[in-house]
Structures are given as structure tokens and as C-alpha cells.
Amino acid sequence: MYRSFALISLGLTGLLQSVHAQETLESCLQNNKIQTSFAAQNSSTWFQDSAGWQGRVRPVPSGVAFPTTVEEVRMSLKCATDANVKVAALNGGHSFVSYGVGGNDGALVLNMTAFNSMSYDKATGYFTVGGGAHVGPAATFLWNNYGAHFPHVRGNWVGLAGSAIGGGLGTTSRFLGTTMNNLVSVTMALANGTVVEASESVNTDLFFAIQGAGSSYGIILSLTLKTWKPTYPDVTKWTIVLPTNTTLDIGVKALLAVQEYGLAESTPDEMYIRWRLTVPVWGGSGYFYGDPIAFSSVIQPLMDALPVGTNLTTSVADFWTMENDATGGLNATSETSNSRSFYVKSIVLTKDHPFTYENAAALYNFTSLAFNRSDISQSGLLDLWGGRANAKLQECDTANAQNGNLWIVRWEGDLKGSDTARGQPTLYTQNAIDYVKSGMQPFLAQLAAEGAQIRGYANYRDSELTPQQWSSQLYPNGNFARLQQIKRVVDPSELFNPNAQSIPV
């Protein structure tokens, strides 16, 4: 009886504390005249305000604030601190696990939409953008006004800040590096309200942490990137399709031929390759940013290594046309893809542990070739990484290690009929998640048998990983311990720890 009474008392105490925290948060934000959205006050817009792009993970925030100035960001952080509420920054909201809206229930979400300023320094070629800018508008502004480009992910309304601190692999990354690799500096608001700049020369530890784990350390107000202007005005797009009678054996050998081609010193880094994981259509596609006249001779060694009957199609267009081809709707003025519910299982292979016949066969055989579900559809891709920009890196240069990365392997299951407006409820079952995971397991087991060190890609977060798995895959060797040391200095109260993969002190 006493134990039951004690449990009830604890439950009531927790409920009262939660109610008090909510009231404290709401009154503080409203007293500081910060635009807000709360479930009880904004029933018509709340679901849109509080929803991320990922429909499978739907946390319920304590509230959403819309700061328009640095001072309002600082006051929002103080309000959250006083209410003992965690904080998440919402940029594009395209986190695969809804970390932009907290990841878990109860966070104060800072919608950074108002921080979308853009400026370009002609002398240095540096591009400075606000922490709320999206990839498409930023890329369009830079191209239309200055004919310049920065490497970016293939999503038009993805948050630029979020994709930068998570990696940002794009079609030009083999020779230019990822968005992360092109960061010059970041301006960030810390938990105590201090606004600091971090770069390779100032606050270097924080700059390291931002590159892979930035959301655990503060709110990005702006970031500055290196840019590039095309050497050639035109780009060659290509598609390769293997013969229709391609078997698993032939398909695996074709992938190994692509890998050998990508690693060859004679293959220019201006060659971008995305190979298909979803079969029975075997093949891939990409873009060549070198001289279009040279394309035929550049691609020929790969064609010679592929099966007889392999078909190659090409087209040539100006750089900006191909930018919009690679990233649909890049120059659009709004989101071009609906919210959807999905689960992604993704890893990174390094040059030290590349595809082998055995692990590639396990990958294809137990994912796409074995797929048999009616509630979800399969999708998979293999993005070739590497290149000269990557070769310059060391493991300790960025928190999410990128040195020596060779392939991103992405396998996912998409809930059928889940392409809806943000905020619409969908049901993605644990059984479906387990099914997607099980398809990758033989591949992972083979990698383990080969002694491969598995890495993760921070833009493709996996909500099913254990703390030991995500910490070692995303932040290998000494990187995770270093992140914890920095955390104890920058955010000792763990204000920016709203989700399961936030860096703990």
C-alpha cells in the first residue's frame, strides 16, 4: 500500500513539475514578445509548426519559438533554461529522425526561418548565409548573382546549416569536398547566451564539434562557406543500364568494376557516380564536371569493364540546368517534396574496407533481391565518395570522421501512401523497421567477419542504433571522447540534448 502511494505521489509530482515548466516557458517567451506556437493556443497551425519532414518520428515539442533577432534567440535560450526545457533548432526540418523538432517529446523548438540573410565576398569567394537558409534558395542566390557554387545535398528545401554539420555530400564533392569540408566559420549562440565565432583559427575545439555534432552545442546563427566557379560551362549527365539478364554474380562484379574505376588514379574526381542498390534494374548514373569533349575517353575504361550489352546514354547541358536536374526544384521557391514516413539503414565504407565480392553479394541478396513487403516500398543507393578533397582529411579534422570514406550505402523502406503534407499522421510499424534492418544484417555480419570498421554518416541518422553503436560509428576512435570534453565546457547543463543521440557530458 505504501509503495503504491509513493509511486502515485511521484507521478503527481512529475506531472506538476511538467505543468509548471510549461507555464514558465510560455509566460517567459510571451513576456519577451517572441512569436510562439503552442498546442493549446494555435490549434490551426500547431501540427504544421511542430512537425518535421519525417512522418515516422513525431515528437511533441513543448512549444515552437520564431526568433527574428539574435537577442530573441538569446532570450529563448534563457527561457528554456529557466523552465528546465531542452532546445532544438529547426532549419529545414529534414532530419531522418526528426531531430529538428526535438527527436523526443518536450523540447523548445527554435524555428530559425527568419535567419536567411545571404552575402558574397568577391575578394575571397566566401559565401555567408543565415542559420535558417535552405539549400535551394542559397544555391540559387549564389548562382544567379555571382555564377558561383558550393557543394550541397540533393534536396532543395533541406536546411543548409543542418546538412552542413551533418556532412553535405553532393555531386561535386569528389573534387570540392562536402559542405562540411567547405565551412570557413560558424557563428553560434551558446547555452549561456554568448555568441561566438568558430573556425580553424578561433574556438577550434568548438569548430571541430560543429562538424558532425553541431546541434549538441548551440544554435547556428550563420555560416560562411568556400565557393567555386565552374571550369567548364557545360556538364555531362550519364546513365548506365546493365543487360536485362544480369544475375547477382554479374551485378556484384559490375559494382566491383565501378569501385575499381572510382579508385583509379586515371579517373578524374570530377566524375560523380551514384550506383543502384534497388534492382532488378542494375546500373547507375552521374554527372561529369570535366571537359564534355573528354567524357567519352574518360568513361571508356568503365564501359570496357562492364558486361557486354551494357547501355550508356548521355546528355550535355549548362551547369545550372544540370544543377536543377541533380537536385529537383533547386531554384523553386518552396518545398518540392511532401513529407513521408520511412526508415533508413545506412553505413559508410572506407578505402581500407571497401566492397568485396562476398559483402556486396550479401548486400544485394538480402536487401533488394529478397524484398517482399506490401506495406512499404524499397529504395537503395550507393554513392561513391573519395576523391582528392577527401584524401586531404585526417580522422581528427571533423567530429563525424570523413577521411578515407569511399561509399555511402543507403537502404530504406518507405511507407506506401505516406507522401502527405507535414503534420499528417502516419503509422510506420516496428515490424517494418525490423524488416529493413534484417535485410542489412547479413551484409553487416560479413563486414564484421572481414574486420571492417563501420562508419556512419551524420546526415543519415539511424534511430535504432544503441549508444555504443552510434557513438563509435559517427565519432570513431577518440572523436567521441573529445566531443564529451568540449560539451562539458560549452554546454555542461545539456540544454542542447533533446534527443537520444545528443552528445552527453
Automatic annotation (TrEMBL):
Keywords: FAD, Flavoprotein, Oxidoreductase, Signal. It comes from the Eukaryota. Pfam families: BBE, FAD_binding_4. Residues 57-230 form the FAD-binding PCMH-type domain. SUPFAM superfamilies: FAD-binding/transporter-associated domain-like. This is Putative berberine-like protein. InterPro entries: BBE, FAD-bd_PCMH, FAD-bd_PCMH-like_sf, FAD-bd_PCMH_sub2, FAD-linked_Oxidoreductase, Oxid_FAD_bind_N. One of its GO terms (molecular function) is oxidoreductase activity. Residues 1-21 form the signal peptide. Belongs to the oxygen-dependent FAD-linked oxidoreductase family. Its cofactor is FAD.
